Amino acid sequence: MTYEREYDVVVCGAGPAGLGAAISAARQGAKTLLVERLGFVGGMHTGAGVTNWCDTPGGPIFDEFVERLTTLHGLRWVEDPVHYVDPGRAAITPEFFRMVAMQILNEAGVDLLLLTFFEKAVTIDGRVTAVECINKAGHIRVNAGVVIDCTADADVAASAGCDIALGDPEDGRLQHCNFRATFENIDYEQYAKDKPSNEQLLEWIRLAQDEGRITPPDGAFQPEAETFPFNQRYKVLQLTSWDMEGVDPLDPWQVSRALQQCNIATLQVLEFCRRHLPGYDQCSIRNIASVLGIRESRRIVGQYTLTAEDVTEAHKFDDGIVSACFFMDLHDSPPGDTMPFSTETIWARRPTRGEHFEIPFRCLVPIRIQGLLVAGRCISAERMAHGAARVMPTCMFLGTAAGTAAALAVRSSRRPDEIESREIRALIGMPVGDPL
Ligand SMILES: Cc1cc2nc3c(=O)[nH]c(=O)nc-3n(C[C@H](O)[C@H](O)[C@H](O)COP(=O)(O)OP(=O)(O)OC[C@H]3O[C@@H](n4cnc5c(N)ncnc54)[C@H](O)[C@@H]3O)c2cc1C
Question: Model's pTM, two decimal places?
Fold first, then answer.
């Protein structure tokens, strides 16, 4: 069955960017639909176990989340005066976030369509006029004044025929993807008292790998006994977070294989811990990621492309609509480099403490294609600058600006790219910066 609906604004993807976009568009009076392929909202935060929202501004809607989550005891600040900018990183309990997000969406009057995949953009004369989606009830075509692509993979933009960049410009290399699991019921005191030496631990792991009791997932970054599941650099058993290289996030077969292997490996590591580690004999699983943690895939080519220099030199723009200060964080494979970065590297890759860079509205506007805005991880940025702009507070801030612009466009019968940035800034309470 195919049926049609009419909306002012349709937002595809309900991660940090999509939430910011849908809530802000609805609050500006636009009839707004938010489409999400999963059965919950929050994107990487709730699906991939990315709990800490980085130390960079997130805009007015993020501030509202912070306030509500703090009241509910669902958020605590993680401070690190050496590496982080004040007030630190917001460690949020994903389950609280999901529920609070539902509450705010409901209050804002956003229509939410879960378990629905964006499938295809409908364009007429280079303008996106509708999106086609699929769910259990069949196909739905949603006609919209403005569509906002918050899928993180630029699914809508790619389908609409926008120009796309992917990975490293030299070889297409992508940042590592990641899988997270959390163990519980561990007697840390007993472990501290009776823990094996690192040599002993490595011997057990080597034996377990030789006997096929621990099998690293394909692409596990440097998958030696020393690195899976043991982190040689930190000298700890890495139970909670594994990086993989060479997994294409746009290939569902590869993603499925990686998720399957990571689930199996989690069970194997759990059994290993129960068998060998003092204090772990009763250990259990608190949660595992529902989706693979994806750091990088498609980015649009927009009217402006954010550069590394814009980040480090704290550039401001006449059309700056988001303020940010996180460092350019690339979990890369050679010839790039990866975590852990030295303190010097972190500070060389972000604006001077106390300074901010701005992201111009033009980074959200694709070239050639009308009726479409893009927010979140897939905005127009050089690969390095993308490493700074992809963090969750910035994505929610970008979404907030995009939703505001979309609602203004519909209300005033203008194209989204005709909206003046000062109009957006006024509505999202962003102070006017110093133009370059
Ligand atoms: C391992 C890892 C660690 C990270 N660490 C941090 C950190 O410590 N702090 C921090 O702030 N950031 C961190 N990040 C970055 C951050 O999580 C992401 O870049 C951010 O969540 C991107 O936000 P988004 O809204 O653009 O996309 P996402 O959070 O990916 O949300 C996109 C949403 O769109 C939906 N979607 C996708 N395609 C479709 C479709 N076709 N139809 C319908 N729905 C669709 C998805 O299901 C998802 O809900 C990390 C990321 C990873 C992977």
Answer: 0.97
